[in-house]
Amino acid sequence: MKTSRISGFYRKPVEERKELILDMMELNGGERSAFFPTEPLELEIADHMVENVVGTFPLPLGVGLNFLINDKEYAVPMAIEEASVIASASHIAKIVRDAGGFKASSGERLMIGQIQVVGCPDFEEAKAAVLNEKSELIEICNDAYPSLIQRGGGVRDLDVRILNEHEDSDYSKMLIVHIYADTCDAMGANMINTMAEAAAPRVELLTKGKVYLRILSNYAVKSLARATCIIPPSLLKTGDFDGEAVRDGVIHAYEFAASDPFRAVTHNKGIMNGIDPVVIATGNDWRAVEAGAHAYAARSGQYSSMSVWSKDEAGNLVGELELPMSIGTVGGATRVHPMAQMALKMLDIKSASELAQVIVSVGLAQNLGALKALATDGIQKGHMALHARSVAVAAGATGELIEIIAEKMIETKEIRSGKAKELVEEYTL
Ligand code: NDP
């Protein structure tokens, strides 16, 4: 793949942008013509995906540029309705690539399944019984999904927790069996649920209790992905702000989020601004990723910043983001949605681990984009310029008029629908 640093991309017409992406991917004739689906999602496919279908709901799909992650170039597909997110991610990715790019990693990817058992006559005895039969239970789980074993995946471990042992209510006392499975390149929800359901009857026998829930946990703490970047202050200089001032502003902003949940929620929403669009574009379950990410941000007992920003001995700005990433490159909607298939091709991703690493890198870029703006000119300057276009479109502007009206509103500092409607009328008279 050629470089993902394509200057002036945003100024080109859409068709030319598509050509540039195809050039970047170095596709040949046949692959080129089939790359962008002519129909984003046919009604017939949609009708098989969910219930009561009456239509489809398109979102803009943009490309995050300039991403260099572990020395590999990425054009990142991002499906999102919010203006300025893709521009900001691409801007920061350019700075980070000049600093050597993002370094990302992920360890073993294990998804977690939970089996809830209540009413055990003796919870400690029940726990011991389950642990004694660990190998047999793992085998039952694996037998329920033989194709996963053939791919080299399967249940790797199992453990047991007792909850509310000393409480009076029989409703709250319970034993929870956790199964940890390598689901290869699948997110694994259905796989895990199948395995948990298969093991449940044996668990009931062993514990002498009653099994209720058998379900995946979206708190995917054994499927973490990390991204880091190290940026010299010279690359952070912005307008009248020198690089050290920007760096210090970013660290102050981080410390605010680290200590205050009111700020942390918005700080983390900014991170998810980068993460969700990639998760959505690749057909993954963004509710699962959102739920896991926010829970991980509260793992200390207090909801806090998902990212960490600091200064190293050389004075560089150091950013880190580690999050649970329950995503896949196969299965679920990725398998059937033509846009998701295209997004995965655009990323040229080889595995779910690689996708997870790209996603956290984009989240980290997005976070720095917001913090850098907040620590310098404020978020509105860049945001309102892009927002003005949406307001112009909503007021009925089309074609070249969108830009003209957006610029006019910015100039007069009146970015509101009333003004946009006035201008549309004025220009279309
Ligand atoms: P699937 O049920 O689609 O399973 C993935 C399938 O991909 C497997 O059956 C396997 O088919 C196939 N496959 C092909 N290549 C590979 C590979 N390299 N590695 C692994 N599998 C491969 O999807 P998931 O189990 O991943 O479940 C994800 C879906 O579940 C999402 O749509 C999600 O929204 C939904 N869900 C989420 C829940 C939650 O988050 N709590 C709960 C329930 C559902 P085969 O082995 O047959 O060849």
From TrEMBL:
Keyword NAD: yes
Entry keyword annotation includes Signal: no
CDD domains per UniProt: HMG-CoA_reductase_classII
Swiss-Prot/TrEMBL catalytic activity: (R)-mevalonate + 2 NAD(+) + CoA = (3S)-3-hydroxy-3-methylglutaryl-CoA + 2 NADH + 2 H(+)
Pathway connected to this protein: Metabolic intermediate metabolism; (R)-mevalonate degradation; (S)-3-hydroxy-3-methylglutaryl-CoA from (R)-mevalonate: step 1/1
EC number in record: 1.1.1.88
EC primary class: oxidoreductase
Keywords: NAD, Oxidoreductase
Domain of life per record: Bacteria
InterPro entries: HMG_CoA_Rdtase, HMG_CoA_Rdtase_bac-typ, HMG_CoA_Rdtase_cat_sf, HMG_CoA_Rdtase_CS, HMG_CoA_Rdtase_NAD(P)-bd_sf, HMG_CoA_Rdtase_sub-bd_dom_sf
Molecular function per GO: hydroxymethylglutaryl-CoA reductase (NADH) activity
PANTHER family: 3-HYDROXY-3-METHYLGLUTARYL-COENZYME A REDUCTASE
Family in the record: Belongs to the HMG-CoA reductase family.
NCBIfam families associated with the record: HMG_CoA_R_NAD (TIGR00532)
The name this protein goes by in its record: 3-hydroxy-3-methylglutaryl coenzyme A reductase
